[in-house]
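$ ./design --mode recover --in tokens.txt
reading tokens...
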């Protein structure tokens, strides 16, 4: 029995252990190899997407390296005809041909703003310009945009129209993720739902720096060319704009005078798209940032906003800098309520975004600004078919009482 065990059972035991170890090692290798193969096939099948992702990265050496690699993969995919399935899907979805959208400026736009995008500008009718900015704009030292000085006035902002249950105010709130909470608070908690309709249109990681990633002027032009264009535009952007620009094919380094001038031109274009006599544009500036580099760029962006808004009576900058400034005069994560009743966490842990509760403060400021230029009628009963336009009103001083 012992001889049988020694000759047959024990060697078989050793052999089974050896085979198990080899099988385990080879199994892991096969799984890893299969995973790598799947990634390579996926990259070849979606090589066009890889190129698009590389192109959207921030300008610099890292982007150049990724772009070279992605273009090499795309070339191999094209040679092997592996990009055809993705191209067929794109064609079926209507994404194979991307037309360059025309940027259409509003009828009040003047030649004071310049833009690198082809734009159609309506003639500007004669009007008395009234500055609606709440603070004195800083002076921009360098700019390629011709600046026309507008005489300041203390006259109250004009009433643009009357809104009611039957003619609700159309509000469009857009921008990057910085203003997303503000728009949500405006929609769900601040704006009166009986006399207003709020549309949210936010794009995460978007900005004015990279129209190749998301073209805000083109998107905004589509909104303002609608038959039911908004009466009030609320816009907040800039959290992702601390990066280089591309102007006429040339790289413009962030923070330089050339960058300031180019960014100010893009701000002016956005403002001019909203240039209509019955439209109020409220542009929320940027709060203090925790990171010194971001803070420096934010100050330049805020300067551009204030300078361009001063030239345009339909634009008002909603200044939130003081609201989010701490006792030491800079960034602070925990801020006292506007009424001083308590201290809240006002900024997210990333040092950039505003918390939802603090966004409510900004939404309240926005609605206060809206209320200065629109007359709300809460007494007229609703009809069965509410109107879709805001009814213009006549200045009482120009009417006569004929009974």
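writing sequence...
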């Amino acid at each position: 029995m012992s001889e049988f065990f020694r000759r047959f059972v024990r060697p078989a035991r050793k052999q089974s252990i050896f085979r198990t170890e080899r099988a385990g090692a080879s199994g892991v290798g096969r799984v890893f190899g299969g995973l790598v193969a799947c990634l390579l096939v996926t990259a070849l099948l979606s090589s066009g997407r890889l190129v698009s992702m590389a192109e959207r990265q921030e300008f610099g050496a890292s982007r150049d390296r990724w772009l070279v690699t992605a273009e090499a993969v795309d070339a191999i995919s094209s040679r092997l005809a592996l990009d055809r399935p993705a191209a067929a899907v794109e064609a079926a979805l209507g994404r194979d041909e991307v037309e360059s959208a025309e940027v259409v400026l509003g009828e009040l736009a003047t030649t004071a703003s310049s833009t690198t995008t082809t734009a159609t500008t309506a003639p500007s009718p004669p009007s008395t310009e009234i500055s609606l900015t709440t603070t004195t704009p800083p002076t921009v030292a360098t700019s390629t945009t011709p600046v026309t000085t507008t005489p300041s006035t203390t006259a109250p902002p004009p009433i643009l129209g009357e809104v009611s249950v039957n003619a609700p105010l159309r509000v469009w709130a857009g921008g990057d993720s910085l203003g997303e909470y503000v728009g949500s608070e405006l929609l769900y908690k601040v704006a009166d739902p009986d006399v207003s309709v709020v549309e949210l249109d936010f794009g995460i990681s978007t900005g004015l720096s990279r129209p190749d990633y998301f073209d805000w002027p083109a998107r905004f032009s589509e909104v303002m060319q609608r038959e039911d264009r908004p009466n009030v535009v609320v816009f907040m952007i800039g959290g992702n704009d601390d990066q280089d620009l591309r102007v006429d094919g040339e790289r413009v380094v962030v923070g330089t005078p050339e960058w300031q001038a180019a960014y100010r031109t893009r701000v002016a274009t956005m403002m001019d798209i909203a240039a209509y006599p019955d439209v109020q544009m409220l542009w929320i500036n940027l709060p203090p940032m925790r990171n010194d580099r971001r803070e420096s760029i934010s100050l330049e962006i805020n300067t551009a906003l204030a300078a361009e808004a001063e030239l345009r009576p339909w634009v008002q900058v909603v200044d939130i800098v003081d609201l989010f400034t701490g006792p030491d005069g800079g960034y602070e994560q925990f801020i006292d309520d506007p009424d001083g009743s308590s201290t809240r966490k006002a900024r997210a842990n990333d040092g950039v975004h505003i918390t939802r509760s603090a966004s409510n403060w900004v939404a309240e400021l926005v609605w206060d600004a809206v209320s200065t230029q629109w007359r709300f009628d809460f007494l007229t009963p609703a009809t069965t078919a509410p109107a879709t336009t805001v009814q213009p009103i006549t200045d009482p001083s120009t009417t006569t009482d004929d009974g």
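exit 0
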